[in-house]
Amino acid sequence: MSSESVGARSYRVLMLAPTSFFADYGCHVRILEEARILRQLGHHVTIATYHNGGPVADLDIRRTLSIPWRHDYEVGSSRHKLVFDALLGWKALGLLARGKYDVIHAHLHEGALIGQVLSRLFGLPMVFDFQGSLTGEMIDHQFVKQGSVFHRALLRLETWLDRSSPMIVTSSAQAAQLLKDNFGCRSEQVQVLPDCVNADVFRPAASYDPSELAALRECLGIPPERRLIVYLGLLAEYQGTGLLLEALQRLVQERLDAHLLLMGFPNVELYRAKAQMLGIADFVTFTGRVPYDEAPKYLALGDVAVAPKLSLTEGAGKLLNYMAVGLPTVAFDTPVARQYLGPDGLFAERGDVASLTDQLRAALFPAADAARRSRQIGRQLRQRAIQHFSWEPAGRQIVDIYRELLGEMGDKAASVPKWAVSGK
User: Which residues of 258-297 are buried (b: 16+ CB within 10 A; e: fewer)?
Assistant: First the structure.
């Protein structure tokens, strides 16, 4: 328990996670780290989530009943999620009926929908943890067609959920602006709570025993002479996975000693086949799912990190992991990427393979006079992550929001760091 929390009220939080928690990516990491920092600050968090998902030893996780026809993880949009969400609503209803909670903390729009109903039934305040547009994600996943009848109906539902939520926290300033401009949310209704990183866990290669990293590299079959690009996250077209493979093909055709460590899921076989078709199968190592607690060591193998995400509505928490490890980082030029990476990001034109190739080449094989600058960039990115994106101040911001919603702050507004509002 934090020393500052001694004597302060301890909140009981019901966190709604409409996903197969825990699954080592994106929104799961945000849910995990928020729950952990709240617990560290002296609060009790119960996470209600789908039946599928990996265990997390230090968290109170309550799972729904299973459905016999679906035993896989749910990633992105799926018609099966309707049943999962109904079961999640039933689970949350039972938890609230049997136990005492102070606040509902709902992740994603499905969680917000369930939370809105339960908030009214039990008279509890709700915080909506917004991690991207519902309809925007469905379009990215090609689950709905923009402008279709189904899309328009979902857009109306999304707009209602956003406007009627008493408080929304977003992972980026870009998302906050989206809520105001596209969905009509009020400024006082939205706070920026960026993804953060534990820089004691994600740390530079120099902090490891060199023989340990060398053994891991050998185990993965990565030739020692090759310069290594690392990627950690979902494998999908909206994540830029196909474009990344095409950029690697260009580097290989230039006879450059480049190699890609592609860590993540799903669609591993799809992209393995694409690498084979592009003639670069010997220059890509697919790991599949990498457990979250092993990810720091895998990233520490890299010379350069890459985040070619195309989506303009979602967060990009993986950038913070790269930054904390001290890796020069190439990303497509989006507002979210600029918010995290700041002046030391290496930005490629969004969706442009040639531009992505140019940035990777320059970062992997810098000219003699640029090599020192490349190392300096990595150090500065780590320092930026430590100064601006650590979890403890984020946890205190969440607690202040709870206090405000519960009417326990008087005229004092919830504390919001200036950098979180400005995106600087």
Answer: bbbbbbbbbbeeebbebbeebebeebbbbeeebebeebbb
pLDDT range class, residue 142, cuts 50, 70, 90: low
User: Is residue 252 predicted with pLDDT exceeding 90?
Assistant: yes
Nearest to 117, CA basis, from 107, 104, 129, 108:
104
| Cα–Cα separations (whole angstroms), residue 370 to 240, 245, 364, 365, 374 | 27, 26, 11, 9, 6
pTM of the complete model: 0.85
Task: Give the tens place of pLDDT for each residue, 50-76.
Answer: 998 888 989 999 999 987 666 555 555
Cα–Cα distance measured from residue 183 to residue 189, given in angstroms and rounded to the nearest whole number: 12
Helix axes 149-164, 173-183, angle to 10 degrees: 110
Residue-wise pLDDT tens digits, 302-354: 999 999 999 887 778 899 999 999 999 999 999 999 999 999 999 999 999 99
Residues in Cβ contact with 65 at an 8 Å cutoff, skipping those fewer than 6 apart:
51, 87, 91
Rg (CA), the chain: 22
Task: Give the per-residue pLDDT at 312.
Answer: 80
Contact residues for 70 (Cβ-Cβ < 8 A; gap 6+): 52, 80, 83, 84
Q: Backbone phi, then psi, for 147, in 5-degree steps?
A: 90, -5
Cα 346 to Cα 333: distance, rounded to the nearest angstrom: 9
Contacts of 239 (CB under 8 A, 6+ apart): 233, 308, 309, 310, 311
CA distance 284 to 252: 11
15 bridge partner residues:
47, 105
Rounded Cα–Cα distance for residues 29 and 33 (Å): 6
Sheet holding 167-170, edge to edge: 60-63, 44-49, 12-17, 103-107, 126-130, 167-170, 190-192
Q: Which helix (H) or strand (E) holds 298?
A: helix 295-299
Q: SS3 of 265, please? A: coil
pLDDT in tens, 168-179: 999 888 899 999
